[in-house]
Amino acid sequence: MKPFIYDYTLDELKDWMKEAGEPAFRADQLFDWLYVKRVRSFEDMTNLPKALRAKLDEAFAFVALSEITRLTSKDGTVKYLFGLHDNHAIETVVMRHNYGISICVTTQVGCRIGCTFCASTLGGLKRNLTAGEIVAQVVTAQQMLDETGERIASIVIMGSGEPFENYDATMKFLRIVTHAKGLNIGQRHITVSTSGIVPNIYRFADENTQINLAISIHAPNDALRSKLMPVNRRYPFDEVMEAIRYYIAKTGRRVTFEYALIGGVNDRPEHAEELADVLNGMLCHVNLIPVNYVPERKYVRTPREDIFAFHRILQSRGINATIRREQGHDIAAACGQLRAKHMESMR
């Protein structure tokens, strides 16, 4: 199978042009066609010589994704189910906010982390995505937004899968989408989320980027987190927190802790107090997320008044916290839900 053109950085395209006997500036032109003009075929790249277009077509596959399903929420959220070349499917979500349009991308087909409240892990991990398959989610969504003159302003890497278990492809994706000659999305407008893959938290701290880091925590202690997130047995709570402290000290950047509130499990006042103790003095923000109902799971949503009570306790203890505004609730926009339905229908 030919490699995807979106798998290549600008420097790699320049190397390819050199090997193909072409001048380096052709790579800049190609990059512009891919990410600024966003054409869908090499034939449309009219300022490239015909012979070069033929070479590119022979060397690379252009399209990585095919649209299987598109669901649109009453709040403007759009969820795509994209098919891959090997008949796997992934989800991508485009969300509209008062500050602009964001996209939530997926980094793996399925997930092996095993969080007990999440649909992404149903069926386990099938494979990692290439950098180009992650890039293609952004480009494809932007091509659709081009029809209405809208632009993706920010990216969250919070779709299905664990980005830090597909670390190299995730970092390459970030280099491509932030390049000034391409999509040029600012690093500060991108957030990558991890369940706590400790070695790669340290690696990420040393990358010297301005990209935001979020940690899925979901519990204030080791025992409860292990019940909710089996990955905690591999990377215990204390080790995760130590890595986060290193990240904050090294980068001076605030970390976001994502905390899914599950009715009667991790949402009691004593959990809020314990979480405040753990995070005391840390440069951080807590994003409280009312858990999404997943038919295959038994968990229920925390009552509204309990969500606000949990939030008030954190705030009273000096912990910066917000309650995530729900989007796409009517179209199964939570990670893995649409793909799970698709897998079931295929079976």
Would you mind describing this structure in some detail?
The chain is of the alpha/beta class and about 350 residues long. It folds into two domains: about 5-60, Orthogonal Bundle (DNA polymerase, domain 1); about 65-345, Aldolase class I (TIM Barrel, Alpha-Beta Barrel). Helices cover about 35% and strands about 20% of the residues. It contains twelve helices and twelve strands. The strands form two sheets. Strands 1-2-3-4-7-8-9-10-11-12 form a ten-stranded mixed β-sheet, sandwiched between helices. A two-stranded antiparallel sheet has the order 5-6. It is elongated. The model has no long low-confidence stretch (mean pLDDT about 90).
